[in-house]
């Protein structure tokens, strides 16, 4: 597999923007795994402090527990009267300065999906971030191409390898883009050719779904 400098430069540009997105971290998990993860909120809304995080849980997730955050209130709603399956989570009543980041934790059981014929399954967690002035809607789900991307959980066969592959791809793309800025050469990068082959389907899925947010 050969990557041109132009392609890697474009990839690096995409990677440079996702650090500003609300993401699930960690975001890779294996079928049936009990996962402790968090929604990472990296900033406010156009310079305004965050006061509420409202999350819609994908219906495939049937076992989930939201965890409290100091100085914030927490409420959940359920899909039916059995109160067995969480439908939404709201953290509210706190105040996160626009320049600060905060993690909103939860634990869940990953659906036991069949990956025998596919490399991964992506689940989406639309989030509405309310601030003192304005909101940020992290609710875009493919095939939609407009709006801010919803945080994702990627269910893969090997979560450790998937995370390592994404980090390696990010590092390679960033290094290649830096090199491209100092030369007009269109030659390919040998570093990309040496990447572990197992990362390619995961990387492709991550680009299509969430633009490599980590």
TrEMBL record:
Residues 1-20 form the signal peptide. It comes from the Eukaryota. Keywords: Signal. Residues 21-153 form the YncI copper-binding domain. InterPro entries: YcnI-copper_dom, YcnI-like_sf. This is YncI copper-binding domain-containing protein. It comes from Mucor saturninus.
